[in-house]
Task: inverse folding
């Protein structure tokens, strides 16, 4: 694998290798000197055509912990807005000998176009493209889920662990969510069962062929309680395009309200509450849910750095990710 | 003017005959004709002779976007594709919404001399869908416009569409509708379905086309006018047009070569060469379109030849221009999808690519039978040849062919336009001297 463009074509073995390597990377974050020499002398460009401070600093932290040189390229004027074309930007980065390009773009498919073009030879990491995919988000979600699984099953280690038998409910704006798509492909590859819950207006036409259950009622989806419930961010503008009538109605029907959290508690469920952030408190998620002990929101942020370190390390070190799971040897990786 | 003796062609793919072309006309059709003095003999053994093709839907881009195509380059491409007439769509810059612009395009076509260029007039001023353009002035101009279309945009206002349908009755005109409900297709990037769901590209639902077609056939019935449907692309649209024809409504429908061959699965590459409007649909739609051409529900093939410069295609999918080239590959795709599949005979091909499009556009000198006394507009087609499509070798300025690298059957060996070979031995010859 030369690039990470989507989770749809990520194999089981490659996914486990990334997750196992991410576990090792996580250990670096617990040390006082949070730095490895692995990518010393390599250049990673964060090419962001769309604002996302969280994702950018996560990638930046990951690359720096691996000792790579990091260049942040905020390309507000993309060809979408009649600025510099993607091609020219890519060729500019190629001329600067970028080893990896982390690209965030509002246009679905642009990372794939970059990877398949002859404009640039660097490894391409998709940091979110339009409403298509966000593979590192899915990987950090999977990392969080398997930590949750290990915890509830009393396991010592997550190494080699997949999501077999887990049930994950993903709630909200599936239609416009790259996270929902990437999560679905990755979680099912790793053996989990996925249920999408949304008002019918926020589900894509053509969802019928997807390997998931689709429900319109959140209460129905939480009965029996799943292993995790992931609340997707809902943009308030959506209601102006008649996707739902009001924010209040949305919150009542599809929000993780204090009552729904209380119902999980009463049932003695071990359900984790996940959110890719940033959260709309009071809309898709109540403060009671966001701040409950079930919430893994900050674990997700922490795991994001580890997963991105793992991806950058594996892509730039040239290991064959599609070989059976062999995380980079700890000796070589962690001095 | 040189006369030509075409020897041993299969007329409409049927009986073998010689054709004597002289002074712009087919002088004789028969077997073992003797070549008159000075006549050039064209060996057409094994070739299919068809009436010169008529493209009811071409974008020549001039005036305004000469970087994409000119009348000269577009009509060279047409000749190489076997065409002897093209209808040039109105979405130039300035829009062809006045007598002045349609006469300019007509004159550019006449002086280029490769094919008949029939300008299409805009239905509404600036294609804005607000008020009618001076349709009668365009009809009465030297361009003699009979077909009117806002192609690229839909005449979505039902009252305006009704008035246009009524107005053109006065001179036997026709409105060609680009059926696309604008609100249902805001921001649309590709066919709405399984693939758009996965790729996260905003969907262009079939219903946005079908709803407008349903409305317009009913309007045409109500006001007793005829209506032409451009680039019909969905199975539902086929059902509606079939129903309308059974009801006796005067509707004709067109399919493009690309909608007969390619599906939205191609979009998975995110290669904007596959971005087109209406978008590539599904396998089911492709099958329905082929059957509809076979049973006569779809009347004609229109290329929707839409050349674009590289910079309008070498970018993110969502900001790439819609459209693909088609003039130089159309007959190959027709053979591949309709003839080699057993759905159509070559006689049928002559009907859908020449006779009917000429009739819809009221172009009396084109789409005629291959018979004595008729204008000598003829294409000689080698159905046994195969071509690997290389857009770099196309005469069109556009390199945006979706068939790049594909092997397609058939090749044009010669095109006669008013008795003059614009294409000879498979290569561009010279324009018609008397055009």
Result:
């Amino acid at each position: 694998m030369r690039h990470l463009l989507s989770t749809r074509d990520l194999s089981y073995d490659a996914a486990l290798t990334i997750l196992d390597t991410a576990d090792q990377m996580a250990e670096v974050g617990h040390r006082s000197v949070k730095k490895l020499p692995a990518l010393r002398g390599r250049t990673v460009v964060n090419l962001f055509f769309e604002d996302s401070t969280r994702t950018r600093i996560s990638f930046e932290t990951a690359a720096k912990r691996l000792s790579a040189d990091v260049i942040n390229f905020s390309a507000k004027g993309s060809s979408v807005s009649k600025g510099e074309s993607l091609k020219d930007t890519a060729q500019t980065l190629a001329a600067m000998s970028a080893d990896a390009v982390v690209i965030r773009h509002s246009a679905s498919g642009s990372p794939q176009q970059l990877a398949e073009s002859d404009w640039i030879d660097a490894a391409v990491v998709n940091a979110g493209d339009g409403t298509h995919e966000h593979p590192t988000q899915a990987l950090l979600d999977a990392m969080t889920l398997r930590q949750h699984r290990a915890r509830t099953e009393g396991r010592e280690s997550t190494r080699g662990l997949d999501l077999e038998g887990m049930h994950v409910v993903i709630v909200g704006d599936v239609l416009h969510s790259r996270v929902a798509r990437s999560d679905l492909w990755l979680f099912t590859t790793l053996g989990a069962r996925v249920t999408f819950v949304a008002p019918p207006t926020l589900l894509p036409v053509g969802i019928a062929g997807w390997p998931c259950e689709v429900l319109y009622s959140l209460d129905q989806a939480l009965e029996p309680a799943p292993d995790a419930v992931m609340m997707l961010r809902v943009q308030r503008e959506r209601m102006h395009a008649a996707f739902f009538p009001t924010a209040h109605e949305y919150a009542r029907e599809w929000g993780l309200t204090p009552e729904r959290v209380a119902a999980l508690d009463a049932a003695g469920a071990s359900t984790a509450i996940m959110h890719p952030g940033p959260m709309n408190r009071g809309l898709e998620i109540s403060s009671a849910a966001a701040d409950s002990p079930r919430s893994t929101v900050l674990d997700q942020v922490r795991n994001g750095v580890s997963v991105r370190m793992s991806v950058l390390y594996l892509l730039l070190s040239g290991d064959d990710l599609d070989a059976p799971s062999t995380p980079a040897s700890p000796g070589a990786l962690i001095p | 003017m040189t006369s030509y003796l075409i020897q041993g062609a299969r007329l409409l793919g049927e009986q073998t005959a010689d054709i004597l072309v002289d002074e712009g006309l087919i002088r004789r059709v028969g077997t073992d004709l003797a070549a008159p003095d000075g006549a050039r003999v064209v060996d057409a053994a094994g070739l299919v002779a068809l009436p010169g093709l008529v493209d009811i839907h071409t974008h020549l881009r001039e005036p305004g976007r000469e970087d994409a195509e000119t009348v000269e380059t577009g009509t060279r491409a047409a000749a190489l594709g076997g065409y002897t007439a093209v209808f040039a769509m109105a979405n130039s810059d300035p829009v062809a919404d006045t007598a002045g612009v349609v006469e300019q395009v007509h004159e550019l076509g006449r002086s280029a001399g490769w094919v008949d260029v029939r300008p299409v007039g805009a239905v509404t001023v600036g294609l804005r869908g607000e008020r009618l353009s001076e349709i009668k002035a365009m009809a009465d101009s030297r361009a003699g416009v009979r077909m009117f279309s806002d192609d690229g945009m839909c005449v979505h206002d039902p009252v305006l569409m009704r008035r246009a349908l009524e107005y053109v009755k006065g001179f036997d005109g026709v409105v060609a509708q680009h059926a696309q409900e604008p609100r249902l297709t805001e921001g649309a990037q590709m066919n709405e379905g399984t693939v758009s769901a996965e790729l996260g590209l905003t969907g262009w639902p079939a219903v946005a086309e079908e709803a407008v077609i349903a409305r317009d056939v009913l309007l045409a019935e109500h006001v007793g006018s005829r209506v032409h449907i451009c680039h019909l692309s969905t199975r539902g649209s086929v059902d509606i047009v079939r129903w309308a024809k059974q009801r006796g409504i005067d509707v004709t429908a067109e399919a493009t070569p690309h909608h007969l061959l390619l599906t939205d699965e191609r979009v998975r590459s995110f290669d904007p060469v596959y971005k087109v409007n209406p978008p590539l649909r599904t396998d089911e739609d492709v099958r329905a379109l082929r059957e509809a051409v076979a049973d006569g529900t779809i009347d004609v093939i229109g290329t929707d030849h839409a050349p674009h410069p590289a910079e309008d295609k070498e970018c993110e999918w969502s900001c790439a221009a819609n459209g693909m080239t088609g003039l130089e590959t159309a007959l190959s795709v027709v053979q591949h999808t309709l003839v080699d599949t057993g759905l159509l005979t070559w006689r049928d091909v002559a009907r859908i690519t020449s006779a009917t499009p000429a009739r819809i556009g009221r172009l009396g000198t084109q789409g005629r039978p291959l018979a004595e006394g008729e204008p000598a507009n003829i294409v000689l087609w080698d159905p046994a040849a195969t071509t690997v499509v290389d857009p770099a070798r196309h005469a069109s300025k556009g390199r945006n062919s979706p068939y790049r690298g594909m092997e397609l059957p058939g090749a044009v060996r010669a095109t006669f336009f008013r008795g003059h070979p614009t294409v000879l031995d498979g290569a561009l010859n010279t324009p018609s001297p008397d055009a």
